Amino acid sequence: MPRALWVLTGGQFINRFGSFVFPFLSLYLVEQNLTLGKVAWVIGAMSVGGIFAPFAGGYLADAMGRRNTIVLSLVGSAVTVLGIYFASSFIGLVAISFLHGFLTYMFGPAANALMSDVVPAEKRVLAFAIFRLALNAGFAAGPAVAGFLFTRSPMLIFVGDAVTTLVFAGLALALLPHGLRTVKGRVSSPRVAWLSWKEAAQDGWRNGPFLQLLIAKLFMAVAFVQVFNILALDTKARGLTTVEYGLVMGFNGFIIMVVELPLAQWIKRFPAKPVSALGFGIIGLGCGSFAFANELWEFFVAMGLFTLGEMIALPVSAAYGAQVAPEKYRGRYFGFFSVMWGFSAVVGSAGIRIYESIGSNWWLLTGACGVLAAAILIPVFRDTRPAIFTEKSSDSMGAAES
Prior knowledge:
Elements: H1 3-17, H2 25-31, H3 36-63, H4 66-86, H5 90-105, H6 107-118, H7 124-152, H8 154-175, H9 190-206, H10 208-229, H11 231-237, H12 242-267, H13 272-289, H14 296-324, H15 330-358, H16 362-376, H17 396-401
Helix pairs in contact: 1-7, 1-8, 3-4, 3-5, 3-6, 3-15, 4-5, 4-6, 4-8, 6-15, 7-8, 7-12, 7-14, 10-13, 10-15, 10-16, 12-14, 13-14, 13-16
């Protein structure tokens, strides 16, 4: 594997270990005497920022290089997470949350495009699994540490989050390559940016496999984000302590750390679309299982099922996304995928209000979204572009979907 992958992997481990704020954000806001309606506004603003960010992140990744976009995203994320803590008014809190979501979500298209640039097609499933291993190894310990810090002082989780993000930014600036730059012309021009996105969108509209994966990812992501938006509130409502909630979240990362790499080595031999569909469906079943959990061990079981689907679906669907994305538009294609995560986060913030009304039954609806995502991947969507840009891979996962 190329050095750039290991830099991203090490930096993401540090960053995700220090991602103390997001798992506890809704709980922190409630303890600041915000109503659930206002909490939904804050998280919704962050999510709306996440919808717009991939357009900027995908374009900048293709225009000024992957590394520069990654550094800009990380530094901005660190500064704005501190701004959330120091916000002195509700309007200011909503505004800084929007900006934080915007800057944070710029990272994904650039990082995924850079890995697709430097990793050969036949190794991408494993590469994305390695990247996720670092992400989740950090997350295995991070929430438990965050729970400990949160009980001492909420400010500690914000400061710790910012510092670890800045460490990753320094590593990226010093060690990552620029990556491809495929946008021609004056990249700072709004007209150049608009035309480049229009060109990529027209290509994507005719790229049937890309559209199919894009729609399926939206419904899968709606189910996925509920674990990070609702579970903190739901576990507290059912009698779990903050530390126990942190352990349940850490269990997700621990399973991935132990199991995902050998699992990725095994599943990469199978066709990508059905494997992704299987994983999407299991994510849905895992989310639905939270509706029936009351004891701590039952939450661990539901999290285990959710994590199995995550380990199957996310690295394979990411590698498949790199495969259906032509090199010329790779940053912008990954920007479209990230937009789906942004939309799902908006739905997740609205889900807080729905959860307030229907309680744990909300898990059943989100679980149905995961199952629907699996069903969307079953039909064959044809590629109607005049030229086929899909890369061919020597392994069976790539060959089956080329």
